[in-house]
Amino acid sequence: MWKNFKIYCCIYEVRKMKKIKAFYCKFQNVSFKDKVFLIIKIMCRLLGIKTYLLLGGYYQEDDDLQSRQDQKLYMEFLMKREKNYPVYSRRTIDIEEKEGIAYIDYLKKENINSIEKIKVILDRKNSYVALMAERLDRGGLEEVIKTLAIEYHKRNLPIEIFCTREGGKIAEELKKIGIKVIIFHGNSKKFRKYIKNNAPVLVNTHYVIDFMEILKYNGIPVVEVIHNMYVFLDKKRIRMEREKSSFINQYIAVSEMAKQLFIDKIIEVPNDKITVIGNAVNSNRMVKKKKEEIRHQYKFDQDCFIFLVAGSIDARKNQIGIVRAWDIFRQLVEEPVMLILAGATSDYEYEKKVRNIIESRKLEQSVRLLGYCNEIFDLMNAADALIVDSYYEGWSVAATEAIYLGLPIIHSRCGSGVELTADGQNGILINNPLKNIAQYNNIKLLNIMRTGINDNMKEMVSAMLDLYDNRSAWKQKRMSISNYARDHINIDNMIEKYVHIYLDTIVSKENYEVTSK
User: What mean pLDDT do residues 473-493 have?
Assistant: First the structure.
């Protein structure tokens, strides 16, 4: 019986939960009573009954936490056994004390940009900077790493990519252009050996919990990027982030909102340890089709006013709230208007609810769900305004691309809302769909988002009316909006700021090593 059930569990996990290894490992090592609980839980899920609160949930974080605890214990034993024998011979500045101080003074000069300074460091040490993530398949975080890697590569900065668990689509893309990518598959022994023989001068981590003890033990500074408003983290992951903070030398937050929520919800970080650097996008992307052509292709009225929502269909993006506001807005205007929802579906139950609202309110003629669109830049160019009404974001790539094209935006108070609306220069900032979002735990927040609770409905309708009623004025501002984006949110500025943080972190360490000799 147990054998057959194990086989069934494997099949079920592959198809539904995608956690076969972890689940099977847990099933093998729990008591008979817990096995019964797990069986009941599986049967309840088959019947569509959610049982997380009643029977307890299984999460990957359980294994992550145990893995880190084991790794920490291992490092303690290692240090005791090898306290007189460093894990690797740390590269030091092979110069006399006087020359070493002169070297530090050079790194502190203000008339030399950060990129040239860090090149000197990397050349002197014959080393590199590592960008580290759990995996590099696809997603917003992965796109940021891809941008950093490509831009560093263009500027001849020696870099390597560490994937602590898996590779993926973006990892393969980076390999093809000659960037070294190492995948460790969660193997701490392999990582420790690699660091011993190929130590970077700094590691820039991106939402990683693996191998932090090894980096600290080897004296390698770490700069961590806060990619999102971490309101969705459960208590276990919050505890992990707090524990991890002792290994981090500097933080980069992608937005002021992300920074503030991290301080309020995760851990209080001193101002000199966390810097806000917004994400930039490739401004060289070209519009391939004219506005009239793309409207004809998708059968949009040439004269209608189009609001575009670009992003995956899921509760976080709040399409329900946008559609509800749209139902009010479209009854207040007389000329043709259209709402376009463009994005792949990541939550099919949520998409079903969105479609039900559209059908029940008879909005089929004015609301279109396009699904995934590989012509999103052309679609933005054909629209009149973009809406981002998310409950939480890190930095909206869609909104950034929109203002590059001069498209005015409506952005909720989350993620990049403050930076991208620029005090009304590029659009309208409205309140978050949920008041005091930081006070909710992850389960409560998910329930609220999927229910479609929206505290900013009035503001959303007002913003829609503002952009519509003043459409001629906003059309005239498109060039100034585009110029603002290119002047303030560009790749060169982003790279310079990132490298400046790297440099400050390295110089602090180097200065300590030189002066302590």
Answer: 93
pLDDT tens per residue across span 126-178: 999 999 999 999 888 898 999 999 999 999 999 999 999 999 999 999 999 99
> Residue 11, CB half-sphere, CA atoms under 13 Å: how many?
7
Tokens 């949920």, residue?
A: 434
Pairwise CA distance, residues 169 & 139, whole Å: 10
54: left (phi over 0), alpha (psi -120 to 50) or beta: alpha
Residue pair 347/353 in contact by the 8 Å Cβ criterion = no
Of all helices (H) and strands (E), which one includes residue 341? strand 337-342
pLDDT at 510 over 70: no
Task: Quote the CA–CA distance of 449 and 315 in Å, as a whole number.
Answer: 5
Number of Cβ atoms within 10 Å of the Cβ of 387: 35
Question: What phi and psi, each to the nearest 5 degrees, are found at residue 25?
Answer: -65, -40
- Reduce the DSSP state of residue 276 to 3 states and report it: strand
Give phi and psi for 406, each to the nearest 5.
85, 15
Please write the tens of the pLDDT for every residue from 331-350: 999 889 999 999 888 888 89
Give kind and range of the element (H or E) at residue 203: strand 202-206
What does the block give as tokens for 172? 């393969």
Q: How far is CA 307 from CA 179, 300, 345, 370, 409, in A?
A: 39, 12, 19, 13, 9
Structure confidence by residue, pLDDT tens digits, 36-46:
766 776 776 66
Query: Distance between CA 76 and CA 471 in Å, rounded?
Result: 64
- Three-state SS for 449-514 is HHHCCCCCHHHHHHHHHHHHHCHHHHHHCHHHHHHHHHHHCCHHHHHHHHHHHHHHHHHHHHHHHH
Instruction: Give 308's strand partners.
Output: 340, 386
Tens of pLDDT, residues 45-103: 666 655 444 444 444 555 566 556 656 656 665 666 555 544 333 333 343 344 445 55
Q: What is the number of residues in the chain? A: 517
